[in-house]
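Example record

Each entry pairs one chain with its bound ligand, manganese (II) ion.
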Amino acid sequence: MAADLTVNGVPSPLSAKVVGSFAYLTIRDRLPTILTKVIDTIHRTKNTFFEEYGEEGIQAEKQTISLLSKLRNEVQTDKPLLALTDDLQDTETWNQYMQRHQGLQGDQGSVSWFKSAWLYVECYMYRRIQEAVWLNPPIRDFDVFNEGKTQSFFESQQAVMALCTHLEEINKSMEQLSRSQLLDNFNTLLLVSLWGNKCDLSISAGQENSQKTSPLDSLSSLQPFILVDDSNMVWSTLISAQRPGQSGVRVDIVLDNAGFELVSDLVLADFLVSSGLAREIHFHGKSFPWFVSDVTVKDFHWTIQQTMAANHKWMSKSGFQWKSYMKEGVWSYHDHPFWTQPHEFCDMAADASDLYTRLQGADLVLFKGDLNYRKLTGDRYWDYTVSFDTALRGFGPAPLCSLRTLKANIQVGLQPGQGEKLTSQDPDWMTNGKYAVIQFHSPKSEQ
Ligand SMILES: O=P(O)(O)OC[C@H]1O[C@](O)(CO)[C@@H](O)[C@@H]1O
Ligand SMILES: [Mn+2]
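Structure tokens for the complex follow.
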């Protein structure tokens, strides 16, 4: 992939200024579609707002829709990005970030939708949705994406049941498993969590996109679509981090989407604990509705609750187990404003040092999904063969692994010729969600 500009060896960020690029099509088509759906959702909830808040609820609905329609117009006409006007804890950070980008753009005009970094402006859109809702207190806590997320969970019921049944079978025979059987089970559940990332609602602009069949049946046929597979390094990291006399290590999972993907992450986390490989799991989620389907604290607890309430023996057993892991503190949920900011992760140590320090306490950090991959690599025009380590630009609080299906045109760490071959076979390979990577980095391997 050709970088249009490289400064000190670092290519420029992807941007919608490249007409016809995926970033361009996202800003031109997908973001306005997402905004239209949000407006429609708020409109359809009007009666509920009225029942709960009376006339004030109706006013809030009107005001929010008017702010969002204005936002859609700003996107479509490539207006300059505006400073945020609310009083949330991250408002100042966002406004400073805008100044920073303005500085980087120099005399090339204002920071705007089609001219600036795609990662930045796309994140900014979700923060503006949050602003629009927040500025209207009666409906402040309304999650404009909730409907889609719950629907996607219910549509994947068969797959969830199959997965929980599989988990029960493993847990039943856990004591008798040999090391290699343990490894096989680990690999299977890692793959389910990887492919669970196909089920996001942002790439489809909110169209349903759930897991309908058993996720376990398709794993071997999906194997050729894994472009980089570092799963053996993930396993050896887990094994070598074990300490005598201590049961297991700490694994952090930086979550992505609610629905089937979240269940696949919870099942992996359950296995890590019940096998004794991990003693503690820290989940990291978003503090407000983000990229259509990302997990918020409400989604997290709701999913556990729904799993418990299921009319299926092994599904509900799993739900109860997860609830007790949470209660005992074996599992914990954390959010941090940094996850809903536009920064590339190489900025984390400087811009969110508390979060960086927290991640340093993990023995392994799993980053789920495409957006996390974009942030890990800075969403830049790297050549395909640049190493993952190089693209991380010093980010490495702990050994880490990205589990990602490809939905944005950024990819590093490929073999020479691999990217070109894929382009000739399947021109949309970077964005059609058919391919995946398991990419590992350890800060130790750099010393
Ligand atoms: O849920 P995921 O895997 O992060 O995917 C979301 C992706 O979809 C997109 O919206 C596609 O443009 C990306 O911005 C984002 O990277
Ligand atoms: Mn997502």
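Residues 22-44 form the longest helix (23 residues).
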